[in-house]
Amino acid sequence: MINLKGRDYLTLADFNREEIWYLLELARDLKKKQKAGISHELLKGKTLAMIFQKASTRTRVSFEAAMFHLGGLGMFLNKNELQMGRGEPIEDTARVLARYVDGILIRTYSHQEVLDLAKYAEVPVINGLTDDFHPTQVLADLLTIWEQQGTIAGLKMAYIGDGNNMAHSLLLAGAIMGMEVTVACPQGYEPSSLVVEKARTLAEKPEKIRVVREPEEAVKGAQVLYTDVWASMGQEGEAVERRKVFANYQINQKLLSLAEKEAIVLHCLPAHRGEEITAEVIEGPQSVVFDEAENRLHAHKAILAALLA
């Protein structure tokens, strides 16, 4: 019997394959209940503090809605409304909030800030995104891949673009779940070598975790194509330069045609049509981007229910 109650959710590397499957099956069950109109108030009387240092649409709305559907309360805490923004140490914020709420979600820049929060808070801490990882998004991605392809293990996923927090989380998740993961990115924009090596230690076949230069090489034989914006939050000043560097790292119809015939296209959103992905592809029949976005709600319910219920 898998029991995740009280655990933190900081990266997917904190969980093994069986535990991730447990979360995916729970997400699927909660999704079915919602679609059928079956009440699932597993967190009645529970509260979640939601600290947002970075702007958000999907993370904020999906977690607030998830807590409401589960019968609990999600409290949005803007950085400008917290004493953290005026210099209160993270350890003080962690210990105080833990006496008020049953869990803490944080979306911020520094991953160390999440680690420090988890160290001092005596309630589960959920990483809603940092500059290094985006583990709540990737659980929704896995759920979408499972729904669309009927399996996860044995599939090849090609990630095209910046070696950012999404690339890191997909490398870890894919390795744990038995996928082949190839990241294609320009020189100087590779994912962290430490994360790549960690993914290889988690993979059954380390040679299936690769970083390459050419998008065409990455998508060959792939059943899953993934991309993200070329300039993430905090990199707006680099946007013009990055558009030049990443010009050949776009998922378009020509690149998609080189993948497997049944390949699906994912994007964590927001998308910049005409940059990392074309409008033709994101609106096309192989795109499951908006199913993926919906699955944020169901995946987040599973995380909350498993950690807090």
Q: How would the blueprint of this fold be written?
A:
Layout: H1 17-36, E1 47-52, H2 58-69, E2 73-78, H3 90-97, E3 103-107, H4 111-120, E4 125-129, H5 135-149, E5 156-160, H6 165-176, E6 180-184, H7 193-202, E7 209-212, H8 215-219, E8 224-227, H9 239-245, H10 253-256, E9 264-267, H11 279-282, H12 289-308
Parallel strand pairs: 1-2, 1-3, 3-4, 5-6, 5-8, 6-7, 8-9
Characteristic key phrases:
309 residues, 41% helix, Rossmann fold, alpha/beta, five-stranded parallel β-sheet, four-stranded parallel β-sheet
Overall description:
This protein folds into two domains: 12-134 and 296-308, 3-Layer(aba) Sandwich (Rossmann fold); 137-292, 3-Layer(aba) Sandwich (Rossmann fold). Strands 7-6-5-8-9 form a five-stranded parallel beta sheet. Strands 2-1-3-4 form a four-stranded parallel beta sheet, with helices on both faces. It has helices spanning 17-36, 58-69, 90-97, 111-120, 135-149, 165-176, 193-202, 215-219, 239-245, 253-256, 279-282, 289-308, and strands spanning 47-52, 73-78, 103-107, 125-129, 156-160, 180-184, 209-212, 224-227, 264-267. It is globular and about 55 Å long. The mean pLDDT is 96. The two termini are 15 Å apart. Helix content is 41%, strand content 14%. The chain is built from twelve helices and nine strands. It has 309 residues and is α/β, with parallel strands linked by helices. Helix 4 links the parallel strand 3 (103-107) and strand 4. Helix 2 (58-69) crosses helix 12 and helix 5 crosses helix 12 (289-308).
